[in-house]
Amino acid sequence: MWQLYQFPLCPFSRKVRLLLGEKGIGYELVRESPWEKRDEFIDLNPAGRTPVLVDAERGTVLIESAAICEYLEETVNQAPMISGTAVNRAEIRRLTIWCDEIFHAEVGEPMMRERMVKRLVHRQSPDAGALRQAMKAGNVLLDYLDYLLDHRTWLAGATFSLADLAAAAHISVADYLGGIDWRGHEQTKRWYSGLKSRPSFRPLLSERMEVISPPAHYDKPDF
Amino acid sequence: MWQLYQFPLCPFSRKVRLLLGEKGIGYELVRESPWEKRDEFIDLNPAGRTPVLVDAERGTVLIESAAICEYLEETVNQAPMISGTAVNRAEIRRLTIWCDEIFHAEVGEPMMRERMVKRLVHRQSPDAGALRQAMKAGNVLLDYLDYLLDHRTWLAGATFSLADLAAAAHISVADYLGGIDWRGHEQTKRWYSGLKSRPSFRPLLSERMEVISPPAHYDKPDF
Question: ipTM score of the complex?
Answer without folding.
Answer: 0.97
